[in-house]
């Protein structure tokens, strides 16, 4: 099982690094590429076609017009998760709306602006449907998260 991560620009690497770290935590194989839907459409089409046999989930990372997730979704029947990127333009709202507003029949699951970690977790949840070992890792992740929150002490003095 593998996740393909496609960045629209090398400037999206910081978010990709968070995705990679979380996928590695769950023991999920990945491949990460920079391929712009606008500037390298033929390369994107070829990559998705070739990666589709090995990758069960695609994650797109794109800002501004953020058509990358939609183009990937148009090229594959695999699940696509879009991560809209905050840019200097409109604080990422443009990317969020571009990613979430896909036409009927071409869905892109969309996480929060710069939400790379949640994209990785969602990919793991999709893969865990057919992988009991990964399902157990996710349960442990949730349990650890819950325990960490329960053990956080906050004292407010007014």
Automatic annotation (TrEMBL):
Could you tell me which pathway this protein works in?
A: Purine metabolism; IMP biosynthesis via de novo pathway; 5-amino-1-(5-phospho-D-ribosyl)imidazole-4-carboxylate from 5-amino-1-(5-phospho-D-ribosyl)imidazole (N5-CAIR route): step 2/2
Question: Which organism was this protein described from?
Answer: Peptoniphilus harei ACS-146-V-Sch2b
Reaction(s) catalyzed by this protein? Answer: 5-carboxyamino-1-(5-phospho-D-ribosyl)imidazole + H(+) = 5-amino-1-(5-phospho-D-ribosyl)imidazole-4-carboxylate
The record's keywords, sorted A to Z, are:
Isomerase, Lyase, Purine biosynthesis
Query: Under which name does UniProt file this protein?
Result: N5-carboxyaminoimidazole ribonucleotide mutase
PANTHER family, A to Z: PHOSPHORIBOSYLAMINOIMIDAZOLE CARBOXYLASE, PHOSPHORIBOSYLAMINOIMIDAZOLE CARBOXYLASE CATALYTIC SUBUNIT
Coiled-coil residue spans: none
Q: What does this protein do?
A: Catalyzes the conversion of N5-carboxyaminoimidazole ribonucleotide (N5-CAIR) to 4-carboxy-5-aminoimidazole ribonucleotide (CAIR).
